[in-house]
Amino acid sequence: MAKTFIFGHKSPDTDSVCASISLSYLKNQLGFDTEPRVLGDLNKETNFVLSYFKFPEPKFLNDVKVQIKNMKYNKKAMINENASIYETYEKINEFDVTGLPLVDNKNKLTGYCNVKEIAKYLIDGDITQLDTSYENILKTLNGKSILKFNDEIRGHVLAATFRSVTFIDRVDLNNNDILIVGDRYKILEYSVKTPVKLLILINNFSLPDELLEIAKQNKVNVISVPMGSFKCANMVKLCNYIKLININPNPITFDDFDYRDDFIKISTKYGHTNYPIIDKDNKCVGMLKLVDQNTYDKAKVILVDHNQASQSVDGVDEADILEVIDHHNLGTIGTNTPINFRSMPVGCTCTIIYHLFKESNVEIPRNIAGLMLSAILSDTLLLKSPTTTDVDIRIANELAKIAQVDINQYGTKMFKEGSSVKGMTPTEIIHQDRKSFNYNDANINISQITTLDIDNVINIKEDIIGALNSMCDLGNYKISLLFVTDIINKGSYLFYNDSSKDIVSEAYSIKDIRQGVYMDGVVSRKKQMLPNLLEVIERRG
User: Fold this and answer.
1) Secondary structure (DSSP) of 367-425
2) CB neighbours (10 Å) of residue 185?
């Protein structure tokens, strides 16, 4: 069974990361093979939580796009460049392809040869020259080894078709000749005494003992074949090395980590039917047929703390989404088949995951309880956010007992450790916890940072505004906001891109709006920040 990745949104916060780890633990306890992943850098708060409860940071997941390695290519479809033309043709038929990659003895790709090139060689090539191995001749002609002195056989092919006297009189044999001959004693004697490079004896003929002894002394290679001279003469050219054919030494290739959509684009451009697959060392690992591009395995994923495609991993539309666990409004994620979708109007994804533990009768370990508690405290701002429900409060207290921490003491320390903006650039502040939304073709970014270090943010106000404007220009956003939330006073300072001033003013009913305006009681992105914007966008059409 393939491993299933569990992850949150692109701007990992404490809830998305802790939910991924906690749900992965639960799933694995139930016999599944899952692994938590993250889609970006962790913020200070989340790093503090993982360190406090001794968890390693989950690995980064770049994308879940279909790659060549997920496609059903033939991992045996290749042939050694020193194979015979005949063997290559047999392999082409066996694999039902029009050509094959050629490799050396270390499987390094050396070229590509197809049926068209083989046919051209057989029609236009010099079929009287043989350059191959002794073994290729044996296999191609189904021969029997009589004498072998050379691994490599190179020379000019002749067939003894004249009368013996005429042949001996007119044909000057030498050590570069390969002679096809039958029961012709005089010619055989002439050939072993010359001596020739190779004797191919037709119709399973054997050398007389006295001639065999001369052949040994003169190191004449001898093979006996079951066919007649006509068939043998036609077959012998197929013994040649496949590498001798005018092959393509630089075929278009892909490696295991190339993406399927790139393969489709390139294959559409060039129109070839087969493509060698190589690894980083240029070793051939197989061949992908164009007709097999729609046969592939999808990455298996479970989404937590989001259900918007814009917030998810790149290529999520190419993945097999098994489940979604979330506490936000329904977004744009779609699936081809029914899935488990668990959504509850609570303050935190880990509140839902707590229920999953109970429903599955799986005990929550202390460190997992600590992660889940941290997520609830983070998302509900120490249980003071408008998104906080009685369920969140009850479960937070139960998890605190398991984790053996005091909610207020631990929560305050967590926020203090994670809220400092000292040394952070405006761009880093904006990207620390941001979510993107698309509504009525309007791209919206809402960043939120919870800090006890308000003055340091106010001091770089102009730089923050510049970063928000740049985000809109570069990322095609219509609206980009940053809410700096003061957890002590339970309110937020608002910064916005310049061109969204009118929409922001209308959305939050602030007549004389200005950068850095304080909004008392506004702390929830889900319930207070986003809905007001969506309402104005809907009203304006």
Assistant:
1) HHHHHHHHHHHHHTTTTTSTT--HHHHHHHHHHHHHHT--HHHHHHHHHHHHH--TT--
2) 12
Run of H or E residues at 60: strand 59-60
Last residue of some domain: 178, 212, 244? 244
* Residue 276 CB burial class (10 angstroms; 0-12, 13-18, ≥19): buried
Q: Has residue 379 been placed in a domain?
A: yes
DSSP state of 102: E
In sequence order, the 6+-apart residues with CB closer than 8 A to the CB of 268 are: none
Strand 59-60 and strand 34-38: the pairing is parallel
Residues 132 and 235 grouped into a single domain: yes
Helices (H), 243-386: 260-270, 349-359, 366-379
Question: Same domain, yes or no, for 320 and 366?
Answer: yes
Q: What is the pTM of this model?
A: 0.73
Residue count (the chain): 541
How large is the average pLDDT for residues 428-444?
87
Nearest to 32 by CA among 473, 516, 362: 362
Decide if 84 contacts 136 (C-beta within 8 A).
Answer: yes
Let me know whether 99 and 134 are in one domain: yes
CA distances from 462 to 39, 81, 116, 459 (A): 29, 66, 68, 8
Beta-sheet pairing, 144-147 with 221-224 = antiparallel
> What's the CA gap between 361 and 422, in Å, rounded?
44
3-state secondary structure of 36: strand
Q: How many domains does the chain have?
A: 3
Peptide bond into 195 cis (omega under 30): yes
Which position has the token pair 């929560």?
Answer: 411
pLDDT digits (tens, 9 = 90+) for 225-282: 999 999 999 999 999 999 998 788 889 999 999 999 999 999 999 888 899 999 989 9
Q: Comparing C-alpha atoms, which of 244, 230, 248 is closest to residue 126?
A: 244
Does 235 share its domain with 139?
yes
* Model pLDDT, residue 419: 77
Identify whether the C-beta of residue 292 lies closer than 8 Å to the C-beta of residue 71. Answer: yes
Token digits for 284? 């051939």
Please identify which residue in the block is written with the tokens 């939304």.
Answer: 437
Residue 265 burial (C-beta neighbours within 10 Å; 0-12, 13-18, 19+): exposed
Spatial distance between the Cα atoms of 160 and 146, rounded to a whole number of angstroms: 19
Residue with token string 């039958």: 182
Does one domain contain both 197 and 218? yes
Which residue range forms the structural domain that includes residue 493? 426-540
